[in-house]
Write a structure and sequence with these properties.
Length: about 200
């Protein structure tokens, strides 16, 4: 008995061995017109096997790309699209640049540091005061998300002053907004739901 593990490896296993055999037969057809019609029939069968691809953009183009892959780029036909090249598939993406700069308080993130630099440069105005209060509430939420037990409004005040080198301070009567994710500060969510009484 011949097992699939003993057979030739499939180039696209999701289409199965039947489609692979159809492509192999198509490549052996000598007449170009018949070979072209055979390839179009194979693409039609591939489309019925995977109807979900119709929701993808350029799905017909992708099917012809996959036909070229199944033939290991050896099928000599007139493709209706320019098929993807092997070097494009095998090429690795370029590494992304990652900012490797030091962040004073990592739980506040890079955005907070950039914002505070610009806030320090702003002249005193009602707009600056409003942005300071918005930043304080944002820092409170960041600290709460990072560590609920460590969330303390006094710490947020001190961190805000340290970030701004003392230029951005909250008034004594400033009231922080409540954390609006369903939990109050100091309350630990258990994830349990109350049972309904009949």
């Amino acid at each position: 008995m011949l097992y699939n593990t003993q057979r030739e490896k499939l180039l696209l296993p999701e289409y199965g061995r039947m489609i692979q055999q159809m492509v192999d037969i198509c490549m052996e057809i000598a007449d170009r017109k018949q070979r072209q019609r055979c390839a179009e029939s194979i693409v039609a069968v591939m489309q019925t096997m995977k109807p979900e691809v119709r929701q993808m953009p350029d799905y017909v183009h992708k099917l012809w790309d996959q036909l070229a892959i199944l033939s290991n780029y050896q099928l000599d036909i007139d493709y209706p699209f320019e098929v993807v090249k092997p070097e494009d598939i095998e090429s690795k993406p370029k590494p992304m640049k990652y900012p490797m700069q030091r962040i004073r308080y990592r739980h506040y993130g890079h955005f907070t540091e950039e914002f505070m630099r610009k806030l320090k440069e702003m002249p005193e105005s009602p707009e600056r005061d409003e942005l300071t209060s918005m930043m304080a509430n944002y820092m409170k939420r960041s600290l709460y998300n990072y560590n609920r037990d460590a969330m303390d409004e006094r710490k947020v005040r001190m961190d805000l002053e340290n970030y701004s080198d003392g230029t951005a301070c909250l008034p004594e009567d400033f009231r922080f907004s409540s954390v609006s994710n369903g939990h109050l500060p100091g309350h630990v969510a258990t994830g349990k739901k109350k049972k309904k009484r009949n």
